Amino acid sequence: MYDSLTAAYKQRKLFYLTLCLLNCLNPNPALAAAKSVDIAIQGFVIEGNHVLTDAQLQAQLLPFLGPGRRFADIQKALETLQQFYRDQGYGEAVVSVPAQELNAGIIRFSVIEPILADIHVEYQPESLRAFYPESKIRANLPALQSGLLLRSVDISQNIQLANENPARKMAVVLSPGADKTQLDATVKVSGLPPRKAYTTIDNTGTALTGEYRMGFGLQHANLWGRDHVGTFNYITPIESPTHVNLFSGSYRIPLYGWGDSLDISAAKSDVGNSSTDTVAGPLQFAGSGEIYALNYNLLLPRWGEYSHRLVAGYNYRQFNNHCTIGVFGSQACGPSGHEISLMPLSVNYSGQFSWQAQTLSFYLLGAHNLPGMAHGSQNDFTQLRPALNGGGGAPAEYNVFRSGFNFNALLVEDWQLRLAGNGQFSPDALVYAEQFSLAGSTMVRGFWEREVTRDTGFVLNNEIYGPDLAELTKLGDHLRGLVFYDYGAGQNNALNGERKQALDLNSVGFGIRLGFNQSLQLKFDGSYVLSGAASHPDGDVRGHLSVYLPYSF
Q1: I want to staple 375 with a disulfide (CB 3.0 to 4.6 A). Which of 67, 285, 296, 339 is the partner?
Q2: CA dihedral 33, 34, 39, 44 (to 10 degrees)
Q3: CATH number of 7-112: 3.40.50.2300, 1.10.3210.10, 3.10.20.310, 3.40.109.10?
Q4: How do the domains of the chain map onto residue ranges?
Q5: Which keywords are on file for this protein (predicted)?
Q6: Collapsing DSSP states into helix, strand and coil, what is residue 70?
Q7: What is the pLDDT of residues 114-152, one digit of tens each?
Q8: Residue 373: what are its φ and ψ, rounded to 5°?
């Protein structure tokens, strides 16, 4: 992303610090004597500082005043000033001790605050220049301004936001300028053209609506030349096209001046008349749903290798179900035939920390539903999940807390470890749409998507990846095998007359990850159910397939 100092500039900085130490150790007898002779430091004089005030800097040096001081105290004072500059985001500033005589116990420090002189933009490949003009690249980095002292934390945040663009990546490289008071910056731009069409195939459907699904998508990652990202998707079953129609769209607006972004998304689904036999006659089902979401992403200042953000979200979800069973009509469907609307407000804090060959990311989310919209009253919730023995049903004003983590580590000989977990806690009885899914291709594998749900639960995924075999097999650019063990547990918050229905699921299996750079990506997991439920009992097997084929233009 952004290294606060490149190798060349680090060398120059090291040179200045070396000169500083030589000045302190050799040329000046008074300072040399200070190594072994106690001195009384009466005060400090700081020269060359502009971005930080003298009062701010002097406050950092108060602990080093007084009698009985030695060279080590002067060195610690210098390091304290240098660290204070870094803490304020000005890691390029250099603090040194110039050659001097000790007069009346006054120590002089010199500060070099190098300003940015020239900015160069390089493209790889050069054809990207036509899609991402240099003027737009500069506009995406408002913290990179000629004539100003760079604030590394601001540049890092600019780069982080800019690199959330799915088609284009940027990096900033600093180098020495014409003299010690200047720096030059090179912005390296890489990636693909902003337009992309793609096809997906997976088996995330059900036997009722079609197990295998095909999707088509379009994405433009530089709308209006402002880095706005628009995406449209359409998914339908392969077995019976248009029987199920899933439409979705999203729009992202980066706010480079603030360092934040805004996400707007919508989705609509409809399921045509589906029929399956039951002991009471044919079950006829048709339904539709709509989802609208608005999220504001607040990127928080980086702490070294730790990046984090806060996301405030608003969702509106409406589910319309129509059900009949034989001659009994809709009355026999019970809660399955009712409509419901949800309007949760949420706050999500997420972070990521990288060190050596390991990465840890996590999130913590809290959501509160606002009742009162059409089909969102307490009566609607009670009809959808009533208390069997009387009393109130599922509350319309409910709270949900979710969390998750993902840990990746490089083991020996290119082997890799991945540990992931997701969970949900709620003190309330929830309607189906808000329950936590324990089963599916990204949860406990070996089951249909959302085959098993509970009010509260968690899932752990444990995976070990073998070495990359692409070069050995001459197949793809990335090819790894893996073995996994999944475990999940959950229970309901029982209403009057209900049971908690506590259960656990677990499965083992193997998988394959095959990828071609900027092209076909294939994922397959074969699962063996150790502890099952619903339509996949113990000993059942199931494969999860996902294919993604993009084309950029």
Answers
A1: 339
A2: 130
A3: 3.10.20.310
A4: 7-112, 115-191, 197-316+340-375+385-552
A5: Cell outer membrane, Membrane, Signal, Transmembrane, Transmembrane beta strand
A6: coil
A7: 999 999 999 999 999 999 999 999 999 999 999 999 998
A8: -70, 170
